Structures are given as C-alpha cells and as structure tokens.
TrEMBL record:
InterPro entries in UniProt: Hemerythrin-like
All copies of domain Hemerythrin-like, residue ranges: 2-136
Listed transmembrane segments: none
Top-level taxonomic group: Bacteria
GO CC term, one of those recorded: plasma membrane
Protein name: Hemerythrin-like domain-containing protein
Amino acid sequence: MLIDSLRRQHRNMETLLDVLEREQHVFDRGGRPDYEVIHAIISYFEVYPTACHHPQEDLILARLAVRDPVAAEAVGDLASEHRNGVVRLRRVARAVEDVLSGGAITRSGVNAILRHFINSERRHIAIEERVFFPAALKALRQEDWVQIACAISEGKDPLVSKAAEDGFNTVRRHILQLEAEAEAIRA
C-alpha cells in the first residue's frame, strides 16, 4: 500500500536525519564532521523528497480534500511545508559552504541552522504520521487509492521509477557506509 511505502520513506529520511545530527554533534563539540557525509545528505534531501516523496503525498492530500475537507484542513498546507523544507535545506547548504570556505558564520550559527532543519523535518514527518496518514486511511476509499496509483504511474515508465527508487536506496546506503567509516575513524 502507498501509505506503507511513504512510511518506509519517512524511516529512511529519519535515518539520514540521525546521521546528520551525529555530524552536527561532532561539529558542536569542536570536532571536524565528515563533510562528505553532510554533502551527501544535503544532496539526497535536495532531490529525493521533491522528485519522489512529496508528489505522492500531494496526490493523497488532494483526494483527502475531496473526501474529508475538515481532515484535509487539519493536515495543513503540506505544499507550503515542503517548500519551507527546501528553504531550510538551502540554509544548511549555505552554512556548510560558509564553514568550508572560511566564511564569517559562527559555530553556534551553523549549529542552530542544522538543529532547526533536523527538528523541523522530524516535526513535519511526525505530523504526517500522526495526522495526515491516519486521516487518509480513514477517509479514502479503494477507488481513491486506485486513482492515486494511476496518477502516480501516469506517464511514467515503471522500470525508470523502480530504477530511480533503487538509485536513491543505493545513495542512502552509501551515506550510511560513509558515516560508519567516519565514526570508526573518530573512535
């Protein structure tokens, strides 16, 4: 089911947020985080949610608005939340680049930007898990899910979609491997 897939995607994103948080803690303690890991996470969040995850949620929310406008209203403006996430991620990318280029950004400023991104993404995921997904599961009918599935696959080659998802899984695994190597070096 689509909601199960979206929940797995959330777990994958939360895993990367955990990695980013570990790197942020290294930075916060005055150490040198693994910037390759941080850049890989930034790249993942720049592409994956916008290309794969959020469009699926948008389709579900549109159907929810038809079936249960009150529940859809309770979910809030996901599109705006998703755009805000992009803005927060850009701030993270700029802060990291400022650090690497010797810019004037303070350590506390970088930490605040990283914490804000991590905490905001976790809050966003939690709202979707606690409010949005249960509302969709309750209100949407089988025909709604069929329409959503058709809209998702419309105009897409399923092999390309599968390849893209596999590619993102490979990137995520690579990030986790880089983090494990960085942790081993720091230990």
